[in-house]
Amino acid sequence: MIDASSRLRRAILLSDALLVKRIIRSNPGILQNPDFKDKSNTSLHLASQAGFEEIVELLVDAGHEDAEISRNTDWDTPLMVAARHGNVDVGILLAARFPRSIPVTNKSGLDALALACLNPASTPLVSLLLSHPEYPAPADGRDNHGDTPLHHASASGSLKALRILLSAGADPTAKNAYDWTPLAYSQTVAAEVYFKNLVAELERRKNEGIRGEKERREEAIKRKYAGVRLVTEDSETTSSRPSDDMSRSESSNSIFSPIDQRGVFTPTVGKSNPWVNGGFETRARAWSGE
């Protein structure tokens, strides 16, 4: 009689969801079911490698990853396995359900992004892994040999992945441990030319953006100070002199004010009056009228 572990692996490879569900229900202890003859790959590794999305979802819902993220002897997660084999739908599902596994690396220092760049079929996963809001994959992450995702995308001929990575800010001049840049790993001359054109285009856009930002700042400064008149020494001297258009009456008033016209006999200064106190300059009492 075939043991339950073998029957579960066989049901997964046959993509028989009903049989997988029945075996798990009858034997809940073998849900993960690591295969020690095959790098300790679990049930989820096996389904992810085969690309059976329905089986993957069934295993996840059954609690396959409740305790921790499954890893085989190479430290590969099910997400890495899906990315390596080009199973995009499974990769999208696992990244959504277990986003904390996105930046995890294996023994070789490869994460899910690097493995997705190694397989052109997994290109749709590249932008997803780079743009995750909580656990984004680093665009310039390095493996044990110093290779970045750009190195892997260039070596695999994944031209779309090259464009996505460069747009995400990956450094095209990064060198690995052997002093090689990603451009050196181009598979064909056409791929090398395409890579160079991508870098030139992004550099041109970057320069245009910097120039546009500078122009916007200058325009903002002009608008800010548009209503302010710059006062210089010459303008102050000119504004302090009377205008040539000033009327004669205004000039006369500015020179001969009513205060100057009072002379010595103003209402505040008493005039000598011979009828008051014998002609002395003293203030007379107010007449009461009696």
Automatic annotation (TrEMBL):
Residues 230-277 are annotated as: Disordered. ANK repeats lie at residues 39-63, 145-177. SMART domains: ANK (SM00248). The keyword Repeat applies. Keywords: ANK repeat, Repeat. PROSITE patterns: ANK_REP_REGION, ANK_REPEAT. This is Ankyrin. It comes from Aureobasidium pullulans.
